[in-house]
Amino acid sequence: MRFDGKVAIVTGGARGMGASHVRGLVAEGARVVIGDLLDSEGKTLAAELSHSLYCHLDVTSEESWRSAVRDAEAAFGPVDVLVNNAGIIHFGGVEEQSPEHFRQILDVNLVGAFLGMHTVLPGMRSRGRGAVVNISSASGLMGFADGIGYVASKWGVRGMTKAAALDMAGTGVRINSVHPGVVRTSMGESASTDLFAHQPVPRIGEPEEVTRMVLFLASDDASYTTGGEFLVDGGQTIGHVGHAHATATGSGA
Ligand SMILES: NC(=O)c1ccc[n+]([C@@H]2O[C@H](COP(=O)([O-])OP(=O)(O)OC[C@H]3O[C@@H](n4cnc5c(N)ncnc54)[C@H](O)[C@@H]3O)[C@@H](O)[C@H]2O)c1
Known about the structure:
By secondary structure, the protein is an alpha/beta fold. It has one domain: NAD(P)-binding Rossmann-like Domain (Rossmann fold), CATH 3.40.50. The protein has 7 helices and 7 strands. A 7-stranded parallel sheet has the order 3-2-1-4-5-6-7, with helices on both faces. Helix 4 runs parallel beside helix 5. The longest helix has 29 residues. The mean pLDDT is about 95. The structure holds nicotinamide-adenine-dinucleotide. Nicotinamide-adenine-dinucleotide binds next to helix 1 and helix 4.
């Protein structure tokens, strides 16, 4: 199996897409630390799966990160895979969003992923191997109204991924970003159906469809891939389906 003997940390792993990534990694042989604030959901998931451990992790806290990595190493050994998946959203446009909400989104989605890499990369560098998958969004490649903080954070994750991949050049450590469209989780279901109704695959995505991409990038199957951005968005970011010319489907000349 692709992750036999490998140790992974998945942030925001207690529910939603993070829980799907945890299940996928465990199914392929990994031992997985589930890091989240949701202690009850996280412990329930860990109890259900063998080879996993729940750890209370607030991704915005350096001390919390150090403690999670210590727990992972003590239970399973050095960390081979980090999936920076934890994220939050507060809807609001540039005029309406409170500075507090804007800062909070950046703190979790962007600073949280930075702190994760900052904490695990020295160990990966010294062992000469490792893979980081940063969960951005389709919103990391375009804008959407009423999403000022979220869009800023996800463009930040996309750019930070490329800078970090260059910092790790020649070390055997790869870092990539994944960009889901609208996906069936509590966060995805808060989005308007307008967001996916006009895309080439006109439906909401399933968490497992994103997991398959995350597992590819985290595995040695992606050995020649770093600093890349990988869409799992049903074609959302290439534009709306439809004809630009008003008479394209009519009987005009
Ligand atoms: N659902 C979508 O449509 C969608 C689309 C694109 C990208 N994403 C991204 O995918 C990731 C997973 O989102 P989801 O849809 O599964 O949402 P979700 O709300 O179900 O899961 C997010 C998880 O992150 C955890 N979390 C929040 N703040 C945290 C913190 N400070 N420390 C640790 N954990 C924290 C939550 O407790 C939760 O378990 C997020 O980064 C999100 O931005 C989601």
